[in-house]
Known about the structure:
alpha/beta, binds zinc ion, single chain
Amino acid sequence: MDNLSASDRGGLRVNVTFYGVRGSTPSPAEGNRRYGGNTSAVLLERAGDPPIMFDLGTGIRSWGLTQPLDGTFRATALVTHLHWDHIQGLPFLAPVDRHGAQLDVFAPVQERGTLTAAFAEFMRPPFFPVHYSELRGDIRFTGVSDHDFEIGSAKVKVRPVPHCGPTVGYRVDLDGTSVVYISDHQAPLHLDRVADSVLELCDGADLLIHDAQYTPDEFSEKALWGHCTMEYALLVARESGARRVCLFHHDPAHADDDLDRLHAEVRDKAADYDLDEVISAREGLQIQL
Ligand SMILES: [Zn+2]
Ligand SMILES: [Zn+2]
């Protein structure tokens, strides 16, 4: 793991680790090896606090392999929405399948039915050999839309985010630092405004992890597919006063060399947006706050 921009404020460090950074669908390929092909999965950790996962995409499997398999596993998942690329890792999160394990899943309130019913529909034969209810650990679902709550010493703020179907973003304030996670964000057609709920989440954040799926040309072709441009992520940061942006949820069509080039072009504009740093999310990256 690389360390990036570490700043020791005299307290315990908050670590943000990326296990999956790809949007839409897993895309393992020779040309994607450096950034990675697993879908959305980011871990927030501080010594003494239970781990918090942002989303349960396919990347979460490899983190699960590092966790206890004796039923002592405890964790919280903050899920932005129920599209496949954000939940497909749950059936492969090995420590949950143990008696005594506990996983708290927060996810947006659904338009119809409960979250438990939605996950039971997603994880059952013939789509998967094991029914959700057969997992041996205790999974507790809580629907959220516009809430504030606490997990240990972390303060969590949830607000709606424009996308396709019920979707939220999360802000976690922990040990004097703030991390905002907005994985999928439908920008307005003219890429010129930011929803008030998003501005509230991002207000002065130390780190904003944000959707960066498209180039301007791609956005013009797919303007209603639920996403935004890389440069729009910078606009969200500037309008909200966030200091650092991490470009995330890469399009499966963007290979490593494409992302290098596209992100370099966006990074050149950081000064125009009054940002301290523009970071490229890739599997294995660890940011210490
Ligand atoms: Zn997505
Ligand atoms: Zn989505």
